[in-house]
Amino acid sequence: MLTKVPKGMKDVLPAESALWRAMESAMRQAALLAGYREIRTPVLEHTELFARAAGETSDVVRKEMYTFLDKGERSVTLKPESTAGTVRAFLESGLYAQALPLKLYYLNAPHFRYEAPQSGRLREHHQFGMECFGAAQPTAEAELIVLVVNLLAGFGLPNLAVRVNSIGCPKCRPAYQEKFRTYLAGKADSLCKNCVERAQVNPMRALDCKEERCQAQLADAPMMLDCLCEECQEHFEQLKRLLTLSGIRFTVDPRIVRGLDYYTKTVFEVTMETPNGVLTVCGGGRYDGLVEELGGPSIPAVGFGFGMERALMLLEQLPQEERRLQAQNEFPQVFTAFLHKGLLTDAFAVTENFRKAGLRADMDHQGRSLKAQFKYADKLGAPFMAILGDEEVEKGVVKLRDMTTKEEWEVALPEAPQALQKRLG
RNA sequence: GUGGGUAUAGUUCAGCGGUAGAGCGCCAGAUUGUGGCUCUGGAUGUCGUGGGUUCGAACCCCACUACUCACCCCA
To answer: Which of the 220-259 residues on chain A come under 7 Å of nucleic strand B at their beta carbon?
Structure first.
């Protein structure tokens, strides 16, 4: 147990963290260009916040939350999604009183869901997400969808599928839900246990059911998309026009429902083909009622969550030459080797000198033989060696060796960093 | 919650009733001031835990635990 990471958690080791950083900077840049600024909210929120925001009937709230009592007997929860916390901060700080829209993004935010882990699904995962408050127009959705698609395409990821749907608003949805509930009631005998339950609490969820018999029963079910009020209809038409105009290939999927109850009008998903099936990389939508639901003024909003591990997983499956996201090199540019222990301090000084000049430099810390130092440097991938023996120290020089060409030459100690920089270009 | 699979060296795995193995990695030597390739040598194991069958169990049986994959749901 002691040396075992808790179930569903993952370490990001050095071999991978560089790629994470590359992805992060691409995200920051994209967000910046679209006028979004970073917000960081706590991992922990009052349980009540999620219950209220995501909805008591959602699977997330009902069975997937990391909830516990703190020492003050308050029920707190590790955030399973970030929209609720962002809205809370937005309200608490009074940011809503400033010029709207307010555009926020978060990056690398840890999220927790207590589920059975498997490929592409962890108990702790990290999301990049964007939220736009105070934008009622479909340009807000379009902006986000375009941004995500361009981002993923920019990584070199092919075969993205963008699916959009509208699930109506408080004006048109209740009538539809009633219609749908009636429809389900007539089929209750042929539906799975879950769907019978769904019919009561949130009938639209049945559309998401993967059971074949349910899908067969729902083949001619009424769709929200066909029952939208005039306003929702117009909103959706505009969004489609905007996406088409932006050159985004998308499909309308009337069956997208999303697992969180706060969505209104637009919902969307970006999915990708993987060896293990289709994975959702990004999911989001409009939540015009949530800010008010959480005690604020009536402010429309749109947002999405983007699973960073999932995107990284897909990227790692991509052949190296198709990847357009490249991790920064981390190997030392020069490795200082020294002949014997008596030259330890000289070697240390030389190494530090390289570092002062902004070069990635390293040396042995194990008392290895010269030969072993070369071997080690080779493993690290250092393209140059700086070699110190008694002769060199006496003459005040260091011998530089190009590991590829095996060429060696001597340079005066103080000039070594410059000489190397020249060679490295 | 339901159903598969797996558990042996640092790591990937082979062995499937009779002395615990290989590749990779690690260390050293061949080459006492020079890496990659090659060759030689070396170190490292409660064979997941507990019980049972047997003269004898890493191997067969049972239970447990952990991991993993899939379903549901999701990022």
So the answer is: 257-259
